[in-house]
């Protein structure tokens, strides 16, 4: 019996020492912007793009769960606060997931800063899915009448939230930084768009829908700066353009996803704080 206890004690001591060595040998993640939000809070994904290392993956890390992108080919640029990323045709930042945003977002908020001058149909972000959709945000139109469209497809229905024509969000395409926030409230089935901390007068409604039910198991990635579909190499070589594939060629900074409908004061704080 003593021999068994002795052997067990030795095994435990070896295990503890081995584990300690593993922890000591683990490489540091490096310095990246950390938000005050804990992983279990309403902020589910946050990329500040403030990294200044030689590693582009570190420069675009999500600060909520240290979710590194699998690819970041975008160049850094001066942002609204610190650094940002400069979009480029056929290129985007790809993450395996948006953490647990899709699984928990009955209501949601998408907030970010953008800088754009050229007029093209381009995507700020998308979450491609094997179920043909899930969520993406595109902008198009003209300088005088910009068009913003947020598409959502969940387990039961699909909806285009659109601001265009008489409801256009003017002043977007002036090559200056602007803060946008798309806030969907499941309790009212309505989405409010904020530009530079101010709510737009037109509120888009998904009549009677209630909380969204995104099919998280079908979502294959989070793409910051591109649409849900992919160009083939042959299409790229031919200089192709496609409204479901195009990349964002402007600036993007402070990209955030919340699983709650932020209030007007919270949106204002993001804008005034350049967050």
Draw up the topology in text.
Blueprint: H1 2-25, E1 43-47, H2 56-59, E2 75-78, E3 83-86, E4 93-95, H3 101-104, E5 108-115, E6 122-127, E7 135-141, E8 146-153, E9 158-163, E10 177-185, E11 190-195, E12 198-199, E13 204-205, E14 222-224, H4 233-237, E15 251-258, H5 264-272
Antiparallel strand pairs: 1-15, 2-3, 3-15, 4-14, 5-10, 5-15, 6-7, 6-14, 7-8, 8-9, 10-11, 11-12, 11-13
Protein name: Concanavalin A-like lectin/glucanases superfamily protein
Organism: Niabella drilacis (strain DSM 25811 / CCM 8410 / CCUG 62505 / LMG 26954 / E90)
Keywords: Lectin, Signal
Structure, explained:
The protein is an alpha+beta fold and 275 residues long. Helix content is 17%, strand content 29%. The chain has a single domain (32-272), classed as Jelly Rolls (Sandwich). It has helices at 2-25, 56-59, 101-104, 233-237, 264-272; strands at residues 43-47, 75-78, 83-86, 93-95, 108-115, 122-127, 135-141, 146-153, 158-163, 177-185, 190-195, 198-199, 204-205, 222-224, 251-258. The strands form two sheets. Strands 1, 2, 3, 5, 10, 11, 12, 13 and 15 form a nine-stranded antiparallel β-sheet that branches. Strands 4-14-6-7-8-9 form a six-stranded antiparallel β-sheet, with no helix packed on it. β7 and β8 (146-153) form a beta hairpin.
Core attributes:
ConA-like_dom_sf; Jelly Rolls; carbohydrate binding; disordered N terminus; 17% helix; lectin; alpha+beta; six-stranded antiparallel beta sheet; 5 helices; 275 residues; Concanavalin A-like lectin/glucanases superfamily protein
């Amino acid at each position: 019996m003593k021999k068994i206890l002795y052997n067990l004690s030795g095994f435990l001591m070896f295990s503890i020492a081995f584990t300690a060595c593993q922890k000591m040998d683990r490489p540091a993640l490096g310095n990246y912007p950390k938000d005050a939000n804990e992983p279990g809070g309403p902020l589910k994904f946050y990329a500040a793009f403030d990294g200044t290392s030689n590693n582009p993956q570190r420069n675009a890390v999500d600060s909520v769960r240290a979710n590194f992108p699998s690819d970041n080919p975008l160049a850094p640029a001066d942002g609204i606060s610190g650094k940002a990323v400069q979009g480029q045709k056929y290129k985007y930042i790809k993450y395996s997931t948006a953490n647990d945003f899709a699984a928990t977002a009955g209501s949601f908020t998408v907030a970010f800063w953008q800088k754009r001058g050229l007029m093209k149909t381009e995507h700020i972000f998308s979450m491609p899915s094997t179920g043909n959709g899930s969520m993406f945000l595109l902008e198009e139109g003209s300088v005088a009448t910009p068009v913003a469209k947020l598409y959502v497809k969940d387990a039961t229905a699909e909806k285009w939230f659109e601001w265009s024509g008489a409801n256009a969000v003017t002043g977007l395409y002036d090559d200056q930084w602007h803060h946008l926030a798309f806030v969907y409230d499941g309790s009212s089935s309505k989405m409010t768009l904020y530009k530079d901390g101010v709510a737009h007068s037109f509120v888009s409604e998904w009549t009677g829908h209630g909380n969204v039910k995104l099919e998280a198991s079908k979502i294959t990635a989070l793409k910051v700066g591109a649409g849900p579909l992919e160009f083939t190499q042959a299409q790229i070589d031919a200089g192709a353009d496609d409204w479901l594939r195009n990349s964002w060629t402007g600036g993007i900074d402070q990209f955030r996803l919340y699983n709650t409908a932020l209030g007007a004061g919270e949106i204002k704080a993001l804008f005034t704080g350049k967050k």
